[in-house]
TrEMBL record:
Family as reported in the entry's similarity comment: Belongs to the ferredoxin--NADP reductase type 1 family.
Annotated GO biological process: cell surface receptor signaling pathway; photosynthesis
The keyword Transcription is assigned to this record: no
Keywords: Chloroplast, Electron transport, FAD, Flavoprotein, NADP, Oxidoreductase, Photosynthesis, Plastid, Repeat, Transit peptide, Transport
Lineage, broadest ranks: Eukaryota, Viridiplantae, Streptophyta, Embryophyta, Tracheophyta
Gene3D superfamilies linked: Adaptor protein Cbl, N-terminal domain, Leucine-rich Repeat Variant, Nucleotide-binding domain of ferredoxin-NADP reductase (FNR) module, Translation factors
Gene Ontology molecular function, alphabetical: ferredoxin-NADP+ reductase activity; poly(U) RNA binding
Residue ranges occupied by any FAD-binding FR-type domain in the UniProt entry: 693-815
Protein known as: ferredoxin--NADP(+) reductase
Cofactor: FAD
Catalytic activity entry: 2 reduced [2Fe-2S]-[ferredoxin] + NADP(+) + H(+) = 2 oxidized [2Fe-2S]-[ferredoxin] + NADPH
EC number assigned by the record: 1.18.1.2
Major subcellular location class: plastid
Amino acid sequence: MVKQILAKPIQLADQVTKAADEASSFKQECAELKSKTEKLAGLLRQAARASSDLYERPTRRIIDDTEQVLDKALSLVLKCRGNGFMKRVFIIIPAAAFRKMSSQLENSIGNVSWLLRVSASADDRDDEYLGLPPIAANEPILCLIWEQIAILYTGSLDHRSDAATSLVSLARDNDRYGKLIIEEGGVGPLLKLVKEGKMEGQENAAKAIGLLGRDLESVEHMIRAGVCTVFAKILKEGPMKVQAVTAWAVSELAANYPKCQDLFAQHNIIRLLVSHLAFETIQEHSKYAIASNKATSIHAVVMASSNNSNVNNVKNVIDEDHQNPIPHPLGNQTPNQMHNVVTNTMAMKGATKLPQKPSSNHARSNSQGNAKLIHQVYHHQQQLNGSISGANIKGRELEDTATKAYMKAMAARALCYLAKGNSSVCRSITESRALLCFAVLLEKGTGEVQLNSAMALMEITAVAEQDTDLRRSAFKPNSHACKLVVDQLFLIIEKADSELLIPCIKAIGNLARTFRATETRMISPLVKLLDEREAEVSKEAAIALTKFACTNNYLHLDHSKAIISAGGAKHLIQLVYFGEQIVQHSALLLLCYIALHVPDSEELAQAGVLTVLEWASKQSNMTQDETVDTLLHEAKSRLELYQSRGFFLLPGCFKWRESGFSASPVTTEAPAKVVKESKKNDEGVVVNKFKPKEPYIGRCLLNTKITGDDAPGETWHMVFSTEGEVPYREGQSIGVIPDGVDKNGKPHKLRLYSIASSALGDFGDSRTVSLCVKRLVYTNEKGELVKGVCSNFLCDMKPGAEVKITGPIGKEMLMPKDPDATIIMLATGTGIAPFRSFLWKMFFERHEDYKFNGLAWLFLGVPTSSSLLYKEEFEKMKETYPDNFRLDFAVSREQTNEKGEKMYIQTRMAEYAKELWELLKKDNTFVYMCGLKGMEKGIDDIMVSLAAADGIDWIEYKRELKKSEQWNVEVY
């Protein structure tokens, strides 16, 4: 293939040389071109002879470029062959053309020379720096990648290891570089290095593979290149350090492309990873030792190089290893006890015959000479492989403690991502002795080993929660492995001071349906965690307890009573009232369940749970979820039935008595509440992420005055950096806490400001937020000049200064979902801020999931023309989208209506009163009002008479518009 690519440029070079000899004009210049072309032709022929060694990707690009240069050179030289006078007159060749062509030929010579050097074999290549070819002028990083991949193809093992290190650095630094490495064919030689390189090279290559597998397409490419086979081979036979990095790479690929989970399982990688977990973790790990097909284990080398007596001696040594196992991490358990544990755990897989306990005669046959033989064979193997092979137990035992721990940590991490959401993989894991390993490692492992083991258990139990068969087989209450796992999870939750806490809470919650009615020990420590200072812990504890108390749990009644007995009600009430938003929802859901299941509880009545639920039902942010809203209604009904409608709590005692109602069971259910779907784009909206006690510290990037010098007051537009940490939506607000203290010596309170930028920010990178702030300065009744604290703080802010930000808050002013809606925006002064964010999203930005096709109509009221904010932006939108955007200004001190009245915003609207009234009759018209409070009354005055003409009460009609989220007001 490469020879075919080179054929045409070689032919063109010969034609250029021949035409240069025949030139009748510009002979000197043609001779110079001929000289360079001959040199280039020589390099091309050299490349053709070495075509089998050339790295194809740069070859194609360089040869294509060279072919174009030679084609142009041929055209230029052919113009110099004409002899006729007229031909010379009409063919004008500037001298610069020869200089340019000479330069291009020099570049082609440099490119082909670089190609030959970079494709040279390890024996022929010098160690000097190859430099960059001229073709790399516009993209030097590409040629650096070519060079490293070429070394992977042809370099020595040491050079290939260095090249893999360079590719690791490139892939880690930039996602685009990783894509280039894959596109330029780097995966194949990296996998080859993983299989055949020295230990350091294998580590670097495996690390590069893990870093490159960052997305679906990249991992699919690696799967096609055979990464599963290579990784399976390494996990079976490679050095332990390489195996650890390979396990990490498996976890990366599985995390970024879950579809490869089954492919890895088909290549036996699950069993291999579990075997690494089991090594020196459970006593019978040798039963599951990985068999090697190659003569790389100590025993295999001895078999190949020793006589029969030596073979027997080695066998005796190995038998002695079986009879003198390593100490068990759990301490006092006997071999027979662990034998029973493993046997029961493997029951679903099918019991296999355990190896017979070696006789004492084998142990007595060991001798010092045999040990020496083992030592010699081990060192022979280490010289062959460059490291201790992880494929045999004796080799693995000699690895250092840190390497063993890292191997276990990465094996657990890989199993975690392989198990995530995959029932078949989880079944394979649980049918092995992995659960036993996780239980031991949670107790005895180091930090990363423990964390990854907890994460793996969390993912496995999450799948088991949804898969009934898996849950019943792997987590049976009488299973020894399950008991060990639950015991360790319980101890971690009970201590409540570990970074393992959250995954362990989730794992216990996932297993909620596996516990018997009598086993309530998990409830109390989880209830205590509801009072945890960290909101994330309280949230997860509430979610876990909800899985115990929810209706889907057969024992929900028993568990609900246990939660109440442990004091859960008082903690939940505190969380619903005062907890952070991430906790409130979970706490309310759990409170609803226990109120629904145990409505006659004295503790719930005393704690005032009914009052809490009634309060929560009036909070819009708590009832947006359909499940919570429905459950809240049912729980309230049940509590009211027992506490208000049929029974009363006697003062001084805790017994119920009937009063005026039949004792027969009540069967009439409360009418189901109709769940109303919001018309606004409120899905996934974040509120109160940052609170006054822990604000986000932003930085001022821009602060500029946007009103004229003669305007009555200054208004400033400012941009703050958020680094993407303040996830706001169009129509929301943020709080700003000014520096300093008030007259009482306390920190200033926050002030709220409507956000003036779209969710992407003014710079389009979702890393900034903008405000529109008017400087407040006035004279009080005493004649003193008063300056607004926060407005002046913000307007005086210099770029680079820090600012304390809270929020985002608010859902009232969110945009409607309907892209075909009619949106009428009414603003005075800085009330324009939320509408600027609306309009930027509608007309200045491009979104895959949103394209505005409706009508946006903006009314902006200001005192003077110099006070018109963002005028140029809005006029540009109107010019570009005349059918979708209407713009009307009301300048009160400069404009009047036909009656000579000042042009306020309601005055301007009166000119379009009938048109506006017809729009308000439509279901997809939304009115947004932001600014001075008096504006709303003026608008009411306009609409009353128009509505009355149609027989409609405007005030009642406006109330209905508010209920349907079509009338939205934010005034001050």
